[in-house]
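hey so u asked for the seq, here:
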Amino acid sequence: MRHLRKGRKLGRVKSQRRALFKTLLGSLIMREKIETTEAKAKEAKGKIDKIITTAKKIKMNSKKLSAIRALKRELPEQAVKKLSGEFSDKFSGRNSGYARIIKLNPRKSDGARMAIIEFVD
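ran it, structure tokens below
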């Protein structure tokens, strides 16, 4: 049974999963809207909400160097710059729920469930 086991493995080992989400979240921040599989979108939504909340805390109190290092480990450098500048101002009035998932038709080639993940305005 899967009691107390959260997260999806997505058919990858830990290092590959970490690299996948680093690029996926970086692309989401840079483009603000991406199309991916539903499972990846659901995992990314939880991660991006935590990352934006961390960036907002850094913006309020710029002395949190450990939080900045953690963001740089999880995201590409350009995404961290955009996140610390533009996004923290954009979501300053919102407490949570920064991203939404819109389900699409299955992919034609293999039938995988597809979804669009984008930021809420």
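The CA atoms of residues 21 and 46 lie 11 Å apart. The mean pLDDT is 91.
lmk if thats what u needed
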